[in-house]
Amino acid sequence: MLELRHLRTLIALRDAGSLVEAAERVHLTQSALSHQIKDLEERLGSPLFLRKTRPVTFTRAGERLLALAEQILPQIRMAERDLARLAGHEQGRLHMAIECHSCFQWLMPTIDHFRDHWPEVEVDIPSGYSFDALPSLARESLDLVITADPQPLAGIHYEPLFRYEGLLAVGKQHPLARRDWVTPEELARETLITYPVEHTRLDVFTQFLTPAGFTPAEVRTAELTIMMMQLVASGRGVCALPNWALTEYLERGYVRALHLGEQGVWSTLFAAIREESRDAPWMEDFLRTARETSFAVLAGIKPA
Questions:
Q1: What percent of the chain has pLDDT over 90?
Q2: Which residues form the HTH lysR-type domain (predicted)?
Q3: pLDDT-derived band of residue 85, with 50, 70 and 90 as boundaries?
Q4: Dist. CA 85–CA 79, nearest whole Å
Q5: 25-57 burial by CB neighbour count: b if 16+ within 10 A, else e?
Q6: pLDDT band for position 3 (50/70/90)?
Q7: 3-state secondary structure string, the chain?
């Protein structure tokens, strides 16, 4: 029998492009996912996709089920929202802060989608909480904080959204531009351009430079990503940013990107919320929408 989990699996397989990444998205092992698909194919008497192709190529049967999934799953989602309203769970407040300068690329479409489906929930991004976001969440001045730096606070739950790699952007003429990765010692000889936040909140320091005992030759700050890219492209320094924040500039050939160390530096982005709001239907829907939107618009991220 065809089940909703099968439809969700096929959507994940299409969006991820491989069994490995699809398994991560639906929180299964690759073996369990392969078994689920094989079992479904045996029930239907038809293969759903061509093995050993990347990205995955679906058969006509697979394409038909994908079309069904695109029709059915949004209707299920809408019904769940309607049932929550009928149960009286529609009222709420979602005041949030973002400890991530480059998060608006995926957060804005998430908020737009959420407002369309939960008009009764008050959504706002009040100013003045950039440097006191998590304590403000605990004090109930905020309801959600996007952060990559979780702190142990009583009553606060950290919901992982996705994993991302920090990359070092350098100018195309920079001596490091021909390299695939950089060492902490090499980065210590550079002018590092960062957002104007504490170094303890930047992965390039906490996960790369500081553990190795190095500091940059100079630190320069810029408010906006485009300003940082202008400085990097003109040879005024280098900067470390999430891989998705660099996609546009890399595609345009504006800068080059290197891994931080041979293995790279990966971090997790979280949505911090209070424990009592975890089960609110509108909060669950916002978090689900945030994940779906992130994987739809960002390149290079992985399931948390």
A1: 45
A2: 2-59
A3: low
A4: 10
A5: bbebeeeebeebbeebbeeeeeebbeeeeeebe
A6: confident
A7: CCCHHHHHHHHHHHHHCCHHHHHHHCCCCHHHHHHHHHHHHHHHCCCCEECCCCCCEECHHHHHHHHHHHHHHHHHHHHHHHHHHHCCCCCEEEEEEECCCCCHHHHHHHHHHHHHHCCCEEEECCCCCCCCHHHHHHCCCCCEEEECCCCCCCCEEEEEEEEEEEEEEECCCCHHHHCCEECHHHHCCCEEEECCCCHHHCHHHHHHHHHHCCCCCEEEECCCHHHHHHHHHCCCCEEEEEHHHHHHHHHCCCCEEEEECCCCEEEEEEEEEEHHHCCCHHHHHHHHHHHHHHHHHCCCCECC
Residue corresponding to tokens 């096929």: 10
Contact criterion met (CB below 8 Å) for 193 and 205: no
**Domains of the chain (ranges, CATH numbers):** 4-85 (1.10.10.10), 94-162+274-297 (3.40.190.10), 163-266 (3.40.190.10)
Residue 182: both structure tokens together: 């950089």
Per-residue pLDDT reduced to its tens digit, 169-194: 999 999 999 999 999 999 999 999 99
Query: How far from each other are the two terminal CA atoms of the chain, in whole angstroms?
Result: 30
Token couple for 142? 């905020």
CB atoms within 10 A of CB 91: 12
pLDDT at site 130: 58
Neighbours of 259 (CB within 10 A): 17
Burial of 117 (0-12, 13-18, 19+ CB in 10 A): middle
Written as six digits, the tokens of 29 are 């092992």
